Amino acid sequence: MKHRLINLRPSRGGRIAWGAAPFIAAVAVYFVFSALRLAENPNDKLLPGLSSFGAAIRRVAIDRDMRTGQILLWLDTLSSLRRLAFGLGASTVLGLAFGVATGVIPYLRAGLSPFIAVLSMIPPMAVLPILFIVFGLDELSKVVLIAIGITPFLIRDLALRIAEMPGELIIKAETLGASTWQIILRVVLPQIVPRLADSLRLSLGPAWLFLISAEAIAAQDGLGYRIFLMRRYLAMDVILPYVAWITLLAFVMDWLLRLFNRRCFPWLTATS
Amino acid sequence: MSQVSVRDLWMEYPGQVVLERVNLEIPSGSFNVLIGPSGCGKTTFLRLLLSMERPTKGAILLDGNALPPEPGPDRGIVFQRYSVFPHLTVIQNVILGLEFARSPGLGKLFGAARRRAIEEAERCIESVGLDGARDKYPAQLSGGMQQRLAIAQTLIRRPKLLLLDEPFGALDPGTKQQMYELTTRLWQEEKITVFMVSHDLKEAFTLATRVLTFDKVRIDPDAPGRYGATITYDLPIARKAAFAEA
User: Fold this and answer.
1) Residue B202: how many CB atoms within 10 A of its CB?
2) N or C: chain A end with fewer CB closer than 10 Å?
């Protein structure tokens, strides 16, 4: 039996195997080259082996730092996640408020959309110096950078999603006697919150980017700060586990948002 | 009472006349089906009845008063698609109209008020034959059931006019027949004035007490937008009309 390539599908086990293959290949390639380099120079720092990783991870994730008396990985993770949470939280609230307002109310759309469209074109990193000057070098400027970076995207995305909602639904709500406020509350918001969660998932990448950039430039702790600090000592044995840890955190956040949509909005996936 | 008068109605878009010189007297409790070729203005007429648009000239009077400038609970609508809220279950879709009316702040009822609304809604759901699907989402219903839900949702606000915009256009013939029976029964029970847009002649003559056909009487071959459509035939269907008056 001859099949086209587009009709050949892996089984469930096959999908897992195919999915795992690139991960295994990447790890294998790394350790082969690491072993080659270490064989030539046992003090090589560029591609450390397993034992160096183990020691480095113990140093940052289990032992207390000699200078500060704290466990560095947890300290950094907590600081970074706090900044990220405040930044994403502020963005979510602002994005939802302005997205719904400009999406639903024509006068606000006319008044605000062009302004937001221009604002969203400002590269956030270009205003980082201004943020440092205005908000100082501590937490606030980092939170504001994340908010400035992703809020315009959230507003515009939500307004577009609302514009895509069938006009019939709004008319129908009007014929059921709903006011503008009731339409927002009972028709628009419940349908738009799952979209917001999806937009947030897409914003996680930029949010981490802004966070790490801000931490790299001015911070006393944080995952981005540590990576850039370790760069000075060429400490790949710390940098690589940190990168893996950041990736894992981002992945978990993405997964939680997806879970939120699946759990809280059963109508999204309802079919006959 | 819900009697409609249309006085010398004109509807123009830039460079195009859609409707011209439409005059009508529609008695309360009649079932009016609007038919005609595509683009002849029958849907525009329905949109005017719903206040989705304003006429260029002329007026529509409902019980002697000018129509309110925006859609409201005095005129219910069932569209061909997107008539029900996908994020609400059947019962939630039906009580929504009551919640809008009774809870201005949140648009949501709680406790005893909610239980009362649910009781009313359950009667309504039963009368359209959806009692088995009370807690299903619209995506879990067939096309015919979704339209039943849309009708129940509209009727719970007891509108004066029921506007139907090709509501059965996407349904299969068997389902259509059931919907005709349901619509006729509800129309008789509620004594409501119905306007329905259709492009199915058989459907029109099955349901209507009055069939109104829209078409252009004047055509300028060089400027197709020059003249609009008007009512070319106004056919009372005697058997049903007698029933409506009885």
Assistant:
1) 10
2) N
Query: B75 - beta bridge partners?
Result: B161
Residues B42 and B90 in one domain: no
- The sheet carrying B75-78 orders its strands as B65-66, B57-62, B4-13, B16-26, B229-236, B210-216, B31-35, B193-197, B161-165, B75-78
Nearest CA in chain B to A181: B105
Chain B interface disruption, residue of A174, A175, A195, most B CBs within 10 A: A175
Q: Closest partner residue to A272 among B73, B75, B141, by Cβ? A: B141
What pLDDT band is residue B36 in, cutting at 50, 70 and 90?
A: confident
pTM of the model: 0.86
List of residues 6+ apart from B213 with CB closer than 8 A: B34, B35, B36, B231, B232, B233, B234, B235
Query: In this complex, do A166 and B82 lie within 8 Å of one another by their Cβ atoms?
Result: yes
Last residue of a domain, one of B158, B184, B209: B158
CATH superfamily of A72-235+242-251: MetI-like (1.10.3720.10)
B54 and B172 assigned to the same domain: yes
CA–CA dist A1, B81 (Å, integer): 43
Q: For residue range A71-104, what is the model confidence (pLDDT) as tens digits?
A: 889 999 999 999 999 999 999 999 999 999 999 9
At A15, is the secondary structure helix, strand, or coil?
helix
